[in-house]
Amino acid sequence: MPSYKLMYWNSRGRAESARMLFTLAGVAFEDYRFKEGEWPELKGKKELFPLGQAPSLIIDGKALPHSKAINRHLAREFKLYGDDNEQRRQVDVISETVDDIVSKIIPIHMEKDEAKKKELLGELNEKTKPFLTFLSDNAGERFFVGNKETLADVIVFWLLDFLVPMAPSVLTDYPRLGKFYNGIKDNSKLTEYLKNRPVTQNYRTSRTSRRSDAMSEHTYKLMYFNTTGRAEAARMLFALKGVEFEDYRFKEGEWPEIKNDKKVFPLGQCPVLLIDGKPLPQCKAIIRHLAREFGFYGANNAEAAEIDIVGETVDDIVAKALPAAFEKDAEKKKTVIEDFRDNTSKPFLPYLNDMIERAGGRFFVGNTESVADITVFCLLDFIFSMLDNARETYPALAKFHDGITENSRLSEYIKSRPPVPGM
Question: 134 and 167 share a domain?
Answer without folding.
Answer: yes
